[in-house]
Amino acid sequence: MFEKILIANRGEIALRIHRACREMGIKTVAVHSTADADAMHVRLADESVCIGPPASKDSYLNMSAILSAATITGADAIHPGVGFLSENADFAAMVEEHGFVFIGPAPEHIRLMGDKVAAKQAAGGLGIPLVPGSDGAVTTGEEAIEVAKKVGYPILIKATAGGGGRGMKVATNQDELLPALHIAKTEAKAAFGNDEVYMERYLSQPRHIEVQLLADGHGRVIHLGERDCSLQRRHQKLLEEAPSPALNENARAAIGERVTAAMKKLGYRSAGTIEFLYENGEFFFIEMNTRLQVEHPISEAITGIDLVREQIRIAAGIPLSIQQSDIVFSGHAIECRINAEHPDTFMPSPGLISDYHAPGGLGVRVDSGLYSGYRVPSHYDSLIAKLIVHGQTRNECLMRLRRALEEFVVEGVATTIPLHQRLIQASDFINGDYDIHWLERFVDTTGGETK
Ligand code: ADP
Question: Whose CA is nearest to atom 10 of ligand 1?
Answer without folding.
Answer: 165
